[in-house]
Amino acid sequence: MPETLKPDPKRWTALIFIAIAQLMVVLDATVVNIALPSAQADLGISDANRQWVVTAYTLAFGGLLLFGGRVADLWGRKNTFIVGLFGFAAASAIGGAAVNTSMLLGARALQGVFGALLAPAALSLLAVMFTDAKERAKAFGIYGAIAGAGAAVGLILGGVLTEYLNWRWALFVNIAFAVVAIIGAGLYIREPAQGRNRNRLDVPGVILASAGLVSLVYGFTRAASDGWGAGLTIGLFVAAAVLLLAFVVVESRVKAPLLPLRVVTERNRGGVYLSLGLAVIGMFGLFLFLTYYLQIVMGYKALTSGFAFLPMVAGMIVGSTQIGARLMLRVRPRYLMAPGFLVAAIGMAILAQIKVDSSYAAVLLPGLVLMGLGMGTAFMPAMSMATHGVRPEDAGVASAMVNTSQQVGGSIGTALLNTLAASATTSWIGSHLTSPADLKKQLFINEAAVHGYSVAIYWATGILLLSAVLAFVLVNAGVQNNPERTEGDDSVEDVAVPVIAH
């Protein structure tokens, strides 16, 4: 058995700067969502191109994450982390200074490219810097809370910046986050020398994985706007299936694959990627519909609607740092993940009860608190298990997989639940319309919209329940304070000592 590496004396300070970088990446999506109406009016962006402000980022980020994870393994996590921060800041500056639609869309795509370098490097740095099981639990608890709560924090920050400054600051604010994280990374992050992957980059794998994931994400985006039966939508899904199947075949045959299949076929990691991806489908849908509900039906301003999500943020922080981190060393991960997703599903079911005149305190508050507690509790071991038992040289790509499952899940959730909500709204109007004059009544329109939101949130509840089942059935690792041999490895020397042990 190899010697356990001595813990880095600066690891806790380093965690602060890794967390700042992760917060920047996570909240960027929702900050821009809140600022989008102002940016659209200022730059004259057409309704048809409006979605591309979000999609350009998602496509580049989701499509290149596996590539970014492998670059981190080959080139070094700290190097990749710092370059990702520099690039993200530069892209944000270009976007904030945009004078037309093309400049803004290009900047958003560039943010996605550098985000794909940054996100897996950040997570894998944690995996190799925290070697003690108890400390690792706390570190991943903090990281999980930030990953889960960042989107809601973005709603508040986006509201403040848009309301009191202007939409451009929703992008410029990233520069401040990046500068602080770059300085901190230079001073405090010390990546262990062990575990660097010395193999050449798998170029065919990069091309097939990136093209396949972009086709998949773009397919769901087109489904939301053109419909599931549209020729382009079907073509994109077929292309995604063919490309990703070809990717699997290539990865099983090349000497140094982009994504070693052992990373995803190991039962625990596979269970995490699948259950977390499904949970994010439900969570993204919730943000989308509740934001519309609060602003359009309840009449909240952007800033007020952002603050309305705070109880969920608080719940996530408590669930992740106080429940998940404390119990992780005593119980198996699935006994945190499955109950966590179940509690989140109960919260989601409460939120599905919304009506046009619902009370925030009676319906939204308990639902949001339970959602936060549940997701925080489940996120914590999920983030930790993303690198469960991997060889050190695979830590970056294993980290990229958990980010990929979240990005793809988010894109699917937005398109799928949006389509379900629109269909339910149309159906409700058809069965309740008594005269054309009804369509001019705001109450009638609001009731139809809320019915659609409610139906979509019920579907999200079902998806979370499925996440709970999959987490319980697939994740069978033991308590994470007892290092064991890496599953599937032939030699004890391949145990990932500095990474997540089970």
Structural class: mainly alpha
The total of beta strands comes to 0
User: Which CATH architecture of the largest domain?
Assistant: Up-down Bundle
Q: For this structure, what is the CATH class of the largest domain?
A: Mainly Alpha
CATH superfamily membership of the largest domain: MFS general substrate transporter like domains
H-E order: HHHHHHHHHHHHHHHHH
Uncertain segments are 483-502
Alpha plus pi helix count: 17
Largest sheet: none
Mean pLDDT: 83
What fraction, in percent, of the residue positions are helical? over 70%
Please tell me the total number of domains.
Answer: 2
CATH topology of the largest domain: Growth Hormone, Chain: A
User: Which strand-content bin applies to the residues?
Assistant: under 5%
Q: What overall geometry do the principal axes of the alpha carbons give?
A: globular
